UniProtKB/TrEMBL annotation:
Species for this entry: Neobacillus vireti LMG 21834
One family name in Pfam for this protein: Acyl-CoA_dh_2
InterPro entries: Acyl-CoA_dehydrogenase (IPR050741), Acyl-CoA_DH_C (IPR013107), Acyl-CoA_Oxase/DH_mid-dom_sf (IPR046373), AcylCo_DH-like_C (IPR036250), AcylCoA_DH/ox_N (IPR013786), AcylCoA_DH/ox_N_sf (IPR037069), AcylCoA_DH/oxidase_NM_dom_sf (IPR009100)
PANTHER family the record matches: MEDIUM-CHAIN SPECIFIC ACYL-COA DEHYDROGENASE, MITOCHONDRIAL (PTHR48083:SF2), MEDIUM-CHAIN SPECIFIC ACYL-COA DEHYDROGENASE, MITOCHONDRIAL-RELATED (PTHR48083)
Domain Acyl-CoA dehydrogenase C-terminal stretches: 244-365
The organism's taxonomic lineage, starting at the top: Bacteria, Bacillati, Bacillota, Bacilli, Bacillales
Protein name: Acyl-CoA dehydrogenase
Gene3D superfamilies: Acyl-CoA dehydrogenase/oxidase, N-terminal domain, Butyryl-CoA Dehydrogenase, subunit A, domain 2, Butyryl-CoA Dehydrogenase, subunit A, domain 3
Length: 389
């Protein structure tokens, strides 16, 4: 019986990985177009939906894959080998859709039955006030990845609920009641379409409220707890941010492949680059840095798998590990570009595009190296830190 279950799980993972490869290849073939349009195409989104990649982390009670975090890493990194923006969206759509696991039953069923994609933003920029049993929200939210193809958007606010201390919460709205401002024009990750959303005195019913502070401190949903669900019994933000280093490692793997292939075929005035010990050394150095980053991701996932809520606060440690991985990856990207030289910086060259995208990954607030390392250092000496993730 156990053997049959394992075989079924392997078969399902194989299908998901094939779907991830298809999504990645479509995105790669359209990379220049996405860069110009500042969003991936509907072809990429349709392939993602067809492969069920947006539903990877939905609870199994909804009939979805509910992969574990190691399987999740394989899938995100597979997409990332082909296109960073597509991997970013595969990660964020799947992790955003998992928000239903922290909604009330009524809210979760409404969103699930509609079946669409969810975008979100965690910066509590908007103003909110009570209106009967619900709330009214007003504000401008930037960096809302994937909003152009989403049916829902969850927006962060600060609310006083059970105590005098304001909680970080999410209010989930249908796209029909928000205004989208297409202002995404950046150095990298241009295909993510991370545009601005404006809401003006929009009513949100109470069952569309998600209590993020409560989820982060307890690891539990308001109802429907399942001990086998990988995003329960862990700090919400630390588990939510697990995909960022996965996206980065997928891109780094591709850059190392590109570096090796181009070095083997590159002829310089002094001879073939592949015979140059300097280039051999660079590849060795960068490969070791990549292995180090893989080990750090394994450590991150292991910490989540063995986490005990209510004991030592490890949010600073999670942040430091995550940011060290993305820093390593940007170091790899820059070294590849500088070593290969001028022919790699032409607009639309895979090296040029991956380098820009991976630098953009590192600028996300959850991956800022100095902030994260400082937070980890403080927690080691027992100081409280203000950091999400």
């Amino acid at each position: 019986m156990v053997s049959n279950i394992l075989d079924e799980n392997k078969a399902e993972l194989s299908l998901l990985l094939k779907g991830a490869e298809k999504v990645g290849k479509i995105a790669e073939s359209e990379a220049l177009e996405a860069d110009q349009n500042k969003t991936v195409s509907k072809n990429v989104i349709d392939a993602m939906k067809e492969a069920r990649l947006s539903k990877l982390l939905l609870p199994k009670k909804y009939g979805e894959p509910q992969v574990n975090l190691r399987e999740y890493s394989q899938i995100i990194r597979t997409v990332g080998k082909y296109n960073t923006s597509a991997a970013w969206l595969t990660f964020l759509y799947s992790i955003h859709n998992s928000l239903v696991a922290f909604m009330t039953k009524e809210g979760a069923e409404e969103v699930m039955n509609q079946g669409g994609l969810i975008a979100d933003i965690f910066a509590p920029i908007g103003k909110v006030e009570k209106d009967g049993d619900g709330f009214r929200i007003t504000g401008k939210y930037s960096f809302v990845s994937g909003i152009l193809y989403s049916d829902w958007v969850s927006l962060a606010v600060k609310l006083k609920l059970d105590s005098e201390e304001p909680e970080l919460c999410m209010l989930t709205l249908p796209i029909s009641v928000v205004q989208i401002v297409e202002n995404w024009d950046t150095l990298g990750l241009r295909g993510t379409g991370s545009n601005q959303v404006i809401v003006d005195n929009v009513y949100v019913p109470k069952h569309h409220l998600i209590r993020l502070t409560h989820a982060d401190r307890t690891g539990r949903p308001p109802q429907g707890y399942d001990k086998d669900y990988p995003l329960y019994d862990v700090p919400f933000f630390s588990s939510f941010c697990v995909g960022f280093p996965m996206v980065a490692l997928g891109g780094a793997e591709r850059l190392l492949q590109e570096f090796k292939n181009r070095t083997e075929n590159r002829v310089r005035m002094g001879g073939n680059s592949a015979k140059d010990s300097r280039h051999q050394g660079v590849l060795a150095e960068l490969t070791i840095k990549y292995y180090e980053s893989e080990g750090l991701l394994d450590k991150y996932i292991t910490l989540l798998e063995n986490y005990e809520m209510g004991k030592e606060d490890k949010r600073g440690e999670f942040a430091a590990i995550r940011s060290k991985i993305t820093k390593n990856v940007t170091d790899i990207a820059v070294k590849v570009l500088l070593t290969l030289g001028g022919f790699s910086m032409f607009k639309g060259d895979p090296i040029e595009m991956f380098v820009r995208d991976l630098l953009a990954v590192c600028t996300h607030r959850s991956n800022l190296y100095e902030d994260s390392v400082e937070a980890f250092g403080k927690t080691q000496f027992g100081f409280d830190v203000s950091i999400n993730g």
